[in-house]
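Field reference: sequence -> structure
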Amino acid sequence: MPAAQTRFIDPAALARIQNLSLVAKMVVQGFISGLHRSTFLGRSIDFAEHRPYMPGDDIRRLDWRLFARSDRFHVKEFEADTNANFVVAVDVSRSMDFGWRGIRKLDYARFLAGSLAAFSRAQRDRVGLAIFDHELREFVPPSAKHLETVLQHLARANPAAEPEPRRKRDGASDLGPALARLGAALGRRGLVAVVSDFYEPPEQVLEAFDRLRVTGHDIMAFHVLDPAEVDLDLDGIPGFEETGTRFRDLESGALLDLSPTRARERYREAMAEHTRALRAGLVRREVDYVLTDTKTPLDFALFRYLSEREGRRRRR
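Structure field:
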C-alpha cells in the first residue's frame, strides 16, 4: 500500500486527529483501496453464495451454469443480499487507560472498533456497539442507520473517573456478567468482535466467552496490549535499571514496589503463558483470536477480520 495511504492506518498518526468518524472512514477507504489492487478474495468480496430460486426472483440472476450441472434453478446472492448484524464490544475498564510512549490502549481500541464498524457498514451490514467494564455500560443495537451513533458513542467512551470498589465474589469474572448481558441484549445471530486487554485469569476470560457463545453468535477476540506490557520494557524511567519502581494498579489503585530488572524475565514468561492459554482456549471454542499491540497498523486487524469473515462464510 502506498505510503500516502499507509500513514492513515498508523496509530501514531491517527492519534493526532480528533474526529473519530473521519479516522474510521480514512482507515477503511485506504484499506479498501489496497484490497482492490491486490488479488485477495478475487470476486468473492462481492459474490457470496447461491440459494434456490423462489417465485418473484429476478431471472437475470439465475446461474445457468449451475442449472446445467444440477438441473435446478439457483439464484446468485451477493453481499448486499446477505447483510448481517455486526456488534463491536469495547472494554473501557481502567487498565485500558494505559499507554507508555504511545497512544492509550483505549484510543487504539476506539480506532479499531470504529474502523471495523465503518468497514462492516461498507459491506452493508447492520452495525452496533457495546461498551463495558465489569458491567454493560452502553448498548447500541445493530442497525443499518447506526454507524454515526456508534462512532459518537465510541468518541465519548472512557474509563470511570475513579476505581470502583470490587463487588464480585472471589474468583468471579468481571468480563462474564458484561458479556452475558450483551448476549441477552442481542437479537438475531450475527458477528461480535470483543476488543479488550483481557486482564483476567485465562479461565475467567474463557468462562465469559462461554456465556456469550451460548447465544449462537460468531465471535472474534481482539487482544490489545501496549508494547511495554508485552515485555515490561519501561526504559526511560529515571533509575529504572538500578532501583525499584512503584507501579499502580489502574483497576484498584493499589501500589506495588518492584524491581523491573529482576522481575522482567518472570513477567515475560507469565505474559507469554497468559496469551498462549487465551489463544488455545478460544480456538477450542471456535472464537477467532487476534493479538495486537498499539503500534500495529490498523489494516492488520481489518485484514484479519475480513479473512475470518470470509473463512466462516465458505465453511457454511
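Note: The chain has two domains: 3-38+83-315, 42-80.
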